[in-house]
Amino acid sequence: MSFLELKSLCKNFGGLRAVDDFTLTIEEGSLNALVGPNGCGKSTLFNLITGVLKPDTGHIQFKGQDITGWAPHKIARLGIGRKFQVPAIFEELTIRENLIIAARNNGQRAEIDGILAQINLTEAASILAGELAHGQKQWLEIGLLLAQAPSLILLDEPTAGMTAAETRATAELITRINRERAMTVLVIEHDMGFIEHLACPLHVMSKGQVLKSGNFTEIRNDAEVKALYFGQAAAVANA
């Protein structure tokens, strides 16, 4: 039984087909990255998985259940957590208080110190979240997801606006979460240097579909990917 299975998903917005017969299987405990140029349907796909949008056709199965069209709160309770591009944190509260609020419904308060250590914010635990650097705010939001104890984490461009050092640290953080907490992680990103650091299976999305799947080297050297996507991705990453 596949952990997350996306079957022939389609989503139209008027005459625009944002997701077009999209099919992908994610195994439990895996780390995967989905890349593609702006407008290829990546964020729409995350909206379909989390119930923000309903697919026009196709099915979404999670842990053996068909969750197609479920309300977002039901999907979240089933164990799917999502981080958006812009951090959603309580800036007027301390880092620890942010985590306590996130953990209060999940019996995870004993885990807060462990989460602080994992997101490299132990020494800053008493600082107001609004005083953090941009990259640290991104890490805090990842910590808020951990406090909710999901089994699947969807990360939407987690390195947006980060420095090169923060980007490398974020790649290390995500791989540690996947390895040490056995959480399944699906990342969408533009930064190909970050994707290379993840060293995970990579899926290239183009025009609402999966164009190619493979490891970073295979994707980097694929002639079709170079022609249809990779040059644009590199330009975006270096902008």
Give structural notes.
This protein is of the alpha/beta class. The protein has 9 helices and 10 strands. A hairpin with a 2-residue loop joins strand 9 (202-206) and strand 10 (209-214). It has a domain at 87-149. A 6-stranded mixed β-sheet has the order 6-7-8-3-9-10, sandwiched between helices. The chain is globular. Residues 233-239 have low confidence and may be disordered. It has helices at residues 42-49, 72-78, 95-103, 112-118, 134-147, 164-181, 192-198, 216-221, 223-237, and strands at 4-13, 16-26, 31-35, 57-62, 65-66, 80-83, 152-156, 184-189, 202-206, 209-214. The longest helix is centred in the C-terminal third of the chain and has 18 residues, at 164-181.
